[in-house]
Amino acid sequence: MDDISFKLPSRKEITTLTGEQGFSHIGFLDLAQFTEWYIKSLSTDQTSTHAVPELLTDAINSGLKGILITALPIMESPSSEHEQPQEPSGEVAPFASDNYYKKAVGKHKIINTELRKRTGYSKRMFRIFCNSRFPEKAFAAAAGIGFIGKNSLLISRDLGSGIVLSGMLLPWFPENSKDIKNALPLPPGEECGKCMICIKSCPTRAIIKPGVVDRGKCLQSMSTGEMRAEFFPLWGTRIYGCQECQDRCPYNHKTKEPGTSGRSNPGPEIPLERILTAGTTRNDIKSLFKGTTLDQGWIKEQYILRNALIATGNHPDGKKLESYIKKHELSEDKMIKEAALWADVRLFPEKEKNT
Ligand code: SF4
Ligand code: SF4
Fold first, then answer.
1. Higher-confidence residue: 8 or 254?
2. Do residues 166 and 130 lie in contact, with contact meaning Cβ atoms separated by under 8 Å?
3. How many whole angstroms separate alpha carbon 131 and alpha carbon 178?
4. 244 in contact with ligand 1, CB cutoff 6 A
5. What percent of the chain has pLDDT over 70?
6. Residue 113 pairs with which residues in a beta bridge?
7. Is the CB of residue 223 less than 8 Å from the CB of residue 54?
8. Cα separation of 8 and 29, whole Å?
9. Which of 50-54, 149-153, 216-220 is predicted least confidently?
10. pLDDT digit string (tens) for 289-306?
């Protein structure tokens, strides 16, 4: 049992701590109340198959009582600051140009150290989460940080979806945590009104109904997973990520000059040659992306190489990289070989006719 020898920090004190770390939004919830509310909001089918209720119940059983949910603004560099290489290059989506998940976790670790010092609770009585299996978007919506849009993302009313969610489960819930006992779950997209921009602008029509994205058709999901050949032409010159449905969202234009392209910066551009010439060992390709989301352990280098080959096939100057494509046509990795063969035929259609 932890020896709680200090006064529990107030909501105001925690807000100050998170503000000092650069979080723009903060919310507090009672974990048990949220869990009850969340389970009520699931359909009968979901209740039996969904892993989240069990995850939340386990946390309650281990003595956790409160949810602290925060949003960290994504600070994009103006496009003029991005490197604009002359050679054929591909893009990394702006949200992935920095490792915001790692940054958010680092900030929570600092807050956590301070909370432990003030309360006497041990480390095991806190659980930091970011990009986790916990329902972070539902936490944020329930706590009033924003709403879930038709593109399934959490949208804050002032910063749009340009935020990264993270937080901590706490061994107590601060006073004045949001009371959601009698709140009705708001269907995703309700606050979007009649807007359908993201649904219409998705290149693969992956948003199949408000708040539901078919991951098998979503380019963002394909960045680090299976990509069927029918999607290769739609992949464009991306290296990682898609945020088309965010770039067009009116909530992401609020802080921009009218008539500008909102937060649609192209993101960092990387010469494709640098990826195609790198070997397939972890260090070679990953070293090109140090400090970005792509540097995370779970992102496999083979996917980055596959994406770069498809981007080369779609690039108007991709022919310049023919010799590198040829090299990868000999790859023993089926996925790499398929992408290289596709790029070759895409850039030199006459070859297909001659075979
Ligand atoms: S990330 Fe891209 S592919 Fe996925 S839903 Fe949004 S626009 Fe569509
Ligand atoms: S683009 Fe429109 S419909 Fe889509 S999330 Fe934004 S406001 Fe909602």
1. 8
2. yes
3. 23
4. yes
5. 86
6. none
7. no
8. 16
9. 50-54
10. 887 888 888 888 899 999
Cα 99 to averaged position of ligand 1 atoms, centre (Å): 20
Regarding the beta carbon of 220 and ligand 1, being less than 6 Å apart is answered yes
CA of 243, closest atom in ligand 1: 1
Dihedral-angle region of residue 7 (phi above 0 means left; psi in -120 to 50 means alpha; beta otherwise): beta
Any ligand 1 atom below 6 A from CB of 242: yes
* Other Cβ atoms closer than 10 A to 312: 30
* Of 137, 147, 148, 151, best ligand 2 pocket probe by most atoms within 8 Å of the beta carbon: 151
- Which ligand does the CA of 195 lie closest to? 2
Higher pLDDT, 58 or 290: 58
* Spacing, Cα 100 to ligand 1 middle (Å): 20
Which domains does the chain possess? 11-78+98-174 (3.40.109), 229-241+268-354 (no CATH)
Amino acid at site 266: P
- Residue 199 alpha carbon to ligand 2 centre in Å: 8
Task: Please give the distance, rounded to the nearest whole angstrom, from the Cα atom of residue 244 to the centre of ligand 1.
Answer: 6
Closest CA to 135 of 42, 17, 250: 42
pLDDT single digits (tens) 193-213: 999 999 999 999 999 999 999
Ligand 2 first shell, C-beta below 6 A: 149-151, 155, 189, 192, 195-198, 248-251
- This model's pTM is above 0.70: yes
Nearest-CA residue for ligand 2 atom 6 is 249
